[in-house]
Amino acid sequence: MKKIALLLFLLNSAFLFAQKEVSGIVKDKSGAPLPGVNIVEKGTSNGVSTDFEGSYKIKVKEGATLIFSYVGFATVEKVASVDKINVVLGESEGQVLSDVVVTGSRSTKRTVVNSAVPIDVISVKDVTTQSGKIEINQLLQYVAPSFNANKQSGSDGADHVDPASLRGMGPDQTLVLINGKRRHQSSLINLFGTRGRGNTGTDLNAIPAASIKRIEILRDGASAQYGSDAIAGVINIITNDNVNELTGSVTYGAFNTKAKGDFLPGTPNTKGFRLDKDGNGNSYGKDQDFDGGSVRVAANYGVALGTKGGYANFTGEFLNKNKTLRPAYDFRKGFGDASMHGVNLFANLSIPIADKTEFYAFGGSNFRDTDAYAFTRNDGERVVESVYPGGYTPRITSKINDNSVAAGIKTESTGGWKFDLSNTFGKNKFQYDIKGTINASLEEKSPHEFDAGGHSLLQNTTNFDISKSYDSVLEGFNIAFGTEFRVEKFEIFAGEEGSYTTYDTNGQPITDPTTQSAPIDPISGNPRPGSSQGFPGYSPANEVNESRTNFSLYADGELDITKDLMVNAAVRFENYSDFGSTVNGKLASRLKLGEHFNLRGSASTGFRAPSLAQIYYNLRFTNFNASGATEVLLAPNDSEITRAFGIGKLNEEKAVNASLGFTASFGDFTATIDGYYIQVKDRIVLTGYFDASALNLGVSEAQFFANGVDTSTHGLDVVFSWKKGFDFGQLSATLVGNINDMKIDKVKNGTLDEATFFGKREKAFLLASAPDNKFSLNLNYAKNKFDAGLAFTRFSKVVLVDYADEDDVYNPRVVTDLTVGYQFTKSLKLTIGSNNLFNVYPSKQDEQGNTEAGGYWDAVQMGFSGAYYYARLGFTF
Question: CA–CA distance from 457 to each of 136, 228, 486, 842, 866 (Å)?
């Protein structure tokens, strides 16, 4: 043991003696210091960033070359021959458009400005330090042109996992990668009152923002390159690899409860109503001026491994967020954002094991304990009145565990061939506990809390990728091909008996409806419903344990025919064990029209395999709305009940994508404009409710998953950016926008009634997931230790259909965000600001509880909690 310790000491000493410390200041041409400039030791992952005064300090090997890079400025290389190196960076031709990207192209020399398809590159560090958003979905909502996400209330599990999408497609039609490797989806399927109704999606909020270096968003169909789910595009999250630096922040914020306008009849403002100590909504509680208080603590640190560029980077994040309470149709009842207590961990490492060979691994663990309002129950039954006078709001609490790990080996042969063998494992588990509830068939003897069971999704993906670049073929040629094998497993596990059972008058489970019956409520005259109210438990009859495999092959080629013309082609074969094979292809090209302009376009076919949840999910539940309660069966797609209603077996969704756009760059100004067309056939949707009273199923209605509609979408994405340094400081402005028009071309109801199969309400939910437009203008100023940002985001009109079969119109709204920061020392920075500074709310709807969630509003892009004020202390050591 002593010999090992001595050996490690000698190795470490040799490493230290072989290093030297280099420091300096980085400025722009006007002499203003540049904070956040990346300085990397060439050929390694050793790097630092300049502080707010443009200063840096880094330890490097003797004779090393330093690379200085910063968005919007030309990259500079300097040999570390002296201890002090000051650098002046000049503006490049295009801000983020000059960043090298790894998404959408397997060529290592491709940048955003010369790519054939639109790609956003978002520096998460920049966004998080200039914004009060604390979750990835909300960050992207305001900086990516066609990214949409919604906060939910009264929508079961979707209150805990925000549905998000690109270009108006479903949450499951965007593929998410971590460091280029496929990320597993959530086990949750969106059902009630949500955007992305009937879809599964990836839980981006399970990834700590502090672990992310940048996010690359490919806004183009990419199934031929990456496989299923990439109909709308790809989100690739690149994690931190920096070393020898501890960064982090502590953020606190809260919402203003004083809603402006006519949100409470007869009063000018709300009083900040709060639920009682049990959270059941049957008393007013104490008034509050602020609610939804949140604390977020995050830290990131990296260490060097060896002397050849190895590293291990670690991130920890803690989040404690309280509920918000906003007006519901009965102001004692619960409606608002869920509370959340979570811990998020992530690690990323690379270890060189030979010349041009490295072992890499990354992964994380996320745990969240959440608490959300369900739909309010009224006092129309004696047992409700006796237990919860005046009615009550059950709460859906959930424990979400999300774990992942990826590992692989990269190497390069002497002939220039690059090989990458990897395996990626991920699992999401969703456990429901229902509180502040009752099983009404047990009457006053009912417990008020139930374990309702849950679901999980496991995914394991093995990849082998090969690529090579040929500089001698015309102006450059890159070829890539590979294979992927994926295993998926979906489970539903049962809860405790009282969460799913209806009991008879003797308190025994009803097993024979001909001889047993539930107690009759003397007020309503109806049998008392069973199961936990708010969310019914999964029973043994609902349990699922299903898996499938997928095998794919792909080839991808990219050729620079001339310095001005590049073409790309890709083809992919996929075979699923449960529904068969599919082949998809893509062609893309970029033409340089001059020094400042590029024309680009693409055409592709795509697909999305039905998720295991869409095939096998099933549940018996009580659907509550303003008119009362209805017992509903959501039958699995592979069941005899589904076939009896004429619903066919789920097949893949099929897509055709086309895009045409151009980029322009003039010194300090860059622009990209891209039009797109997406046609999707056989989209999987959740149907309306069919009359099932004659089938002796113990329910009055049934609904299903089906390949129910064909849609076509036309749209336009724009990104304009400008950045310039002056004597009085540095100014920048960015305008991002999306115009989107989705049409339902055909409802594929066969011989079934269209109004029941996919009627007015279901159509409105689908179209609301594709808002007509969104525009964001972001203005930033920085001078010495001071910086400020002002953002305006306009959300377009959204129309939904409520339970009264009437249109709920949400008019356009403009949300204003403001942030101000000051760097007190090299290590500490204070930022204060507000999201939705002017406390803007969506258009109020009726007061009869006809909205999907039972409040004044449905879920819309801007949210419904009002102004959020925050303060953040950032640190760097």
Answer: 21, 16, 13, 35, 35
